[in-house]
């Protein structure tokens, strides 16, 4: 798809196609409910899913106004009239117990990451997540316990050295069937797990 890009959004990368592929491969295992894409940016992931999925609502969430404007254009052109765009911070604006799948390529670089100078043309807000780079990933994992339905699939793209940490976080929040897929260069890139029945609707884990 010839996506429009602009201020405030990442340039889509081939590695993110793996995130979409994994989502599509696991659709048949999911409960009823919508698909939520967090930090949609240009809307690339949401519209890619809309091209392939016809029987589920898709909600694309973005907090930055500049990115919202870009996403509106792409969703209008390629969303098949089924992608709802919501402005908000991660899952804060979403209702409890509504999602069958939550998918995201969130910021995952630490604020002192040595790769940042080479990415000066990309918006920092789409790249950097606190001191460790894991802050936004943990926020999403935690909030999925409230928004996800039993059996909800959480799919997360992350840095090529963060696989162990993301799997550990998913385990700490008692997700099950945790796996990681590698990118085109053989690096760990996409980790996922399923929300267990006893966790769905929870907002905090002990």
TrEMBL record:
Record-linked SUPFAM superfamilies: S-adenosyl-L-methionine-dependent methyltransferases (SSF53335)
Domain of life: Bacteria
Domain Methyltransferase small: 26-113
GO molecular function terms listed in the Swiss-Prot or TrEMBL record: nucleic acid binding; peptide chain release factor N(5)-glutamine methyltransferase activity
EC annotation from Swiss-Prot or TrEMBL: 2.1.1.297
InterPro entries documented for this protein: DNA_methylase_N6_adenine_CS, HemK-like, N5-glutamine_MTase, SAM-dependent_MTases_sf, Small_mtfrase_dom
Pfam families: MTS (PF05175)
PROSITE patterns: N6_MTASE
Keyword Secreted: no
Biological process terms in GO annotation: methylation
Record has S-adenosyl-L-methionine as a keyword: yes
Enzymatic reactions: L-glutaminyl-[peptide chain release factor] + S-adenosyl-L-methionine = N(5)-methyl-L-glutaminyl-[peptide chain release factor] + S-adenosyl-L-homocysteine + H(+)
CDD domains registered for this protein in UniProt: AdoMet_MTases
Keywords, in A-Z order: Methyltransferase, S-adenosyl-L-methionine, Transferase
PANTHER family documented for this protein: HEMK METHYLTRANSFERASE, MTRF1L RELEASE FACTOR GLUTAMINE METHYLTRANSFERASE
NCBIfam families: hemK_fam
Protein name according to UniProt: peptide chain release factor N(5)-glutamine methyltransferase
Native organism: Granulosicoccus antarcticus IMCC3135
Lineage, broadest ranks: Bacteria, Pseudomonadati, Pseudomonadota, Gammaproteobacteria, Chromatiales
Gene designation per UniProt: prmC
